[in-house]
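Q: My labmate handed me this sequence with no annotations at all. I'd like to see what the chain might look like in three dimensions before we decide whether it's worth expressing. Could you predict it?
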Amino acid sequence: MKKITLSLLLLLGFSSNLIAKSETNSSSLSNNFYVGAGGTLVSTGATDSLDLFNQQYGQDRAVGATLLFGYSIREFLDLEARFMKTVSKEDAFSQTTWGLFLKPKYEVFNGFSVYALYGVGGVSVSPEESSEDFSITDISFGGGASYKVTSNISVFADYVDNARHNIEQFQDKEQQVGTKSVTTGLMYNF
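A: Here is what I predict for the chain of 190 residues:
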């Protein structure tokens, strides 16, 4: 009962803080548009074996470059588009990913914010050993944190679990295939 009460109090406090901030600062958003770029660590393959930092059977790890474009709808909510292309790979896949996300965010303290990413994303994978490319479009989600270095420049780090899809024959059995990624980079607010 204490956990439920505490959770409800935290949710109520968080919600009232967001509403109060949006009402008092809705006209003071001067930096609505932003762009960003970053380096991305990507793991693609059967979703039960994805590991970004260790090689697992049934996955391919790669390094990619990510571009992002965003618009601050409110002080606590952005709309963000992302595009990632692999630039080096471990084994057999080259790929591109894209996503369109709602990005609720919360400033924990001056300059440091945490955020979630909820939206739709796609993955296009081109295996070198096969002529069969495949594309996946599905729900994508993630989360991260950013820190304002100056009034216009922020550093960020986040995790995204991209689209998943059931493939009838992937490595000789039917399984769910997807992509996970970790990105770090810089954002510029206009």
